[in-house]
Design a protein that fits this description.
heterodimer
């Protein structure tokens, strides 16, 4: 089922949580709402799920107005950050809940409920826990049960609010991949909220980057990383070096007051100036971090570090040490001036 | 202690004599101020033998007092149960103006002397009160009658259930209810299948305390009752009348019923606390 959001607004008192949001989610897509805390991503998710009501704007499900249906009728599966499992029910009863509360006419019989619940528990690979209580499960297990419970009512849309936010790093990575595989299997239109850019880039088909109640950019993980629409997206997704036009005029070209954004891995280092725009710097710190080498350099007399990242092979081909004088030149940079985006190639 | 680690310092252990002394002080104190009076109640009640004890309880005025006490509790407890659930739901789940005022008002009966709360009803509904003439014109009698006693009982027992549920429901949050609604549950289904099971021990705990107070209330009920024997006397009032008439055996016999109620309440309360701990539902007011 596709979802269309048009000119959506939401206030909490004087605080503007959502500011003129427009978004189209295609049927079967897996979308990530990415942004810092307080950016409005959870509010947007809760409005789509019917747990919150927008002040103004339109919400369409498959072209149909969604506002006339409340959370109960929307057929939306919701997965909460802190699982929200029913603590006094067994795992089995938790998953069966959505089937048991159906109107008498649509309610499956006990044998059918049992079959469906065990099928879902097998899907999340936790059937062996069916008679346990939520308090007896680990965080990762609870979240998978919460997902099975949401899937029991065969939702047309799956909404996940920071689904892995309360889990430790290792479990998080595992569940991330598992969710992606599950989505490829079931193809339910899904939206998940996260503040973790790595999670968004790895799992989602498309990423919606939000900040201060507005959408900054919508695009594939590759697009938001390689072609950020705004300085915010540049800074929020991945590391970046900033070069102000006052100090590095050649890199910002004709712009009087602008900032050039360069990723650490988009900077070349050489012992002699490649061309007139190369910047003379001094190597301050070399760190080997796993498969890459990070080199911090600084312009003479400046205490601000410029971070450069390269593969071990490239570093070893032309090794350098602290105090070496070298020249740097960006392979790729973005110049932002007063909200205008321009991409320049330094080549 | 067998489980003590080899390296653990002896000095971290509590001193045995001090522990014993503290326990002894506490026990003597309890014995003097709780145990002794309780024994005295039963000793005096049964002092002249079982025959007189039964006589005192079988007397029609005593029966009427027992009946009235049960009626007052049977109305006050469900009324405050309904109010307590509604108020705590509102306070724990929603943001609205005057929320802290509502919480303060719920505490009012605890802050006000029961005699004063009884007087308030006399001032409102008594013959000389604000609504007195109107009530008389419509031939409705509240003060010095059963309805007044029920009203006063509801007033003094109002905070018990709400006070127990508000912190409990606030601690539990609303996510489970939201999950239930998103799974298609109606408001009633959400309440019965998710909310109620989560608060059932706290609720029962509040009901036990509310009931004990409703049956034992003296001050407020005394003001509005009028002490008409066989008509508007509850158990505590009946005890007082008998005692003032130097009918000590009967007074202590009826008092022993209230003492029994207290013992039953204590056992029930401990049982609920124990079950609640096992089910992992935190009882905020448990002490």
């Amino acid at each position: 089922m596709s979802i269309t959001v048009e000119n959506l607004n939401k206030h909490f008192g004087a605080y503007k949580a959502l500011d003129d949001i427009n978004l189209a989610v295609n049927s079967g897509e897996l979308i990530a709402l990415l942004g810092p805390s307080g950016c409005g991503k959870t509010s947007l998710l809760r409005i789509i799920g019917g747990l919150e009501v927008a002040d103004s704007g339109k919400l369409l499900f498959h072209g149909e107005d969604g506002a006339q249906h409340d959370a109960r009728e929307r057929n939306v599966g919701f997965v909460f950050q802190h699982y929200a499992l029913f603590r006094h029910m067994t795992v089995f009863e938790n998953v069966a809940f959505g089937l048991r509360v159906k109107p008498r006419g649509q309610r499956p019989n006990e044998a059918e409920i049992s079959r469906r619940v065990h099928e879902l528990l097998n899907l999340v690979q936790l059937d062996w826990l069916h008679d346990r209580y939520p308090a007896q499960l680990s965080g990762g297990q609870r979240q998978r049960i919460a997902l099975a419970r949401a899937l029991a009512v065969e939702p047309k849309i799956l909404l996940l609010d920071e689904p892995f936010g309360a889990l430790d790093a290792q479990v998080r990575k595992e569940l991330r991949r598992w969710l992606r595989r599950l989505h490829d299997e079931l193809r339910i239109t899904s939206i998940f909220v996260t503040h973790d850019q790595e999670e968004a880039l790895e799992v989602a088909d498309r990423v919606v980057v939000m900040n201060k109640g507005r959408i900054e950019q919508t695009g594939t993980p590759d697009e938001v990383y390689t072609a950020p629409a705004t300085p915010f997206v540049y800074r929020f997704i991945g590391n970046v070096n900033l070069f102000h036009s006052r100090d590095h005029a050649p890199w910002t070209n004709e712009y009087a007051d602008a900032i050039a954004y360069v990723r650490p891995h988009d900077i070349d280092i050489s012992a002699s100036p490649q061309d007139g725009t190369a910047l003379p710097v001094e190597v301050r710190l070399v760190r080997r971090v796993g498969s890459v080498v990070r080199v911090d350099v600084a312009v003479n007399g400046s205490s601000e570090f410029i971070e450069i990242e390269m593969s071990r092979e490239r570093f070893d081909a032309a090794p350098m040490a602290n105090g070496n004088r070298v020249y740097i030149l960006p392979r790729r940079l973005h110049v932002f001036e007063k909200g205008v985006k321009n991409e320049l190639s330094a080549a | 202690m067998a489980s003590r680690l080899p390296g653990q310092r002896i000095s971290t252990r509590k001193s045995a004599p001090v522990t014993l002394l503290l326990i002894a002080v506490a026990l003597i104190y309890l014995l003097l101020f709780l145990g002794l009076p309780l024994v005295a109640v039963f000793a005096n009640a049964l002092g002249k033998g079982w025959g007189l004890y039964w006589e005192a309880l079988k007397e029609p005025d005593a029966w009427s007092a027992i009946g009235l006490t049960f009626i007052a509790a049977a109305i006050a407890v469900p009324a405050n149960l309904a109010f307590g659930i509604a108020a705590s739901w509102a306070v724990a789940r929603f943001e609205f103006r005057g929320k802290s005022l509502l919480v303060t008002l719920i505490d009012l009966p605890f802050a006000v002397s029961p005699v004063v709360s009884g007087l308030i009803y006399v001032l409102l509904f008594g013959a000389q009160g604000w609504f007195g003439p109107w009530l008389q014109a419509h031939d409705i009698k509240l003060i010095f009658a059963v309805p007044g006693i029920v009203l006063a009982t509801i007033f003094v027992t109002l905070p018990f259930i709400a006070r127990e549920l508000i912190p409990l429901m606030q601690a539990q949050g609303r996510e489970e209810e939201e999950a239930a609604v998103s799974l298609g549950a109606s408001g009633w289904q959400t309440f019965r299948r998710v909310t109620l099971p989560n608060i059932k021990w706290g609720l029962l705990y509040g009901v036990i305390l509310c009931n004990a107070r409703a049956m034992g209330e003296f001050g407020a009920v005394s003001v509005v009752s009028g002490h008409i024997r066989g008509m508007t006397n509850t158990l505590p009032l009946h005890v007082e009348i008998l005692y003032n008439e130097y009918n000590f055996v009967a007074a202590f016999a009826v008092a022993s019923l209230l003492a029994l109620l207290a013992l039953v309440t204590l056992v029930a309360k401990s049982l609920v606390e124990w079950r609640a701990r096992r089910s992992g539902e935190p009882l905020q007011g448990a002490h």
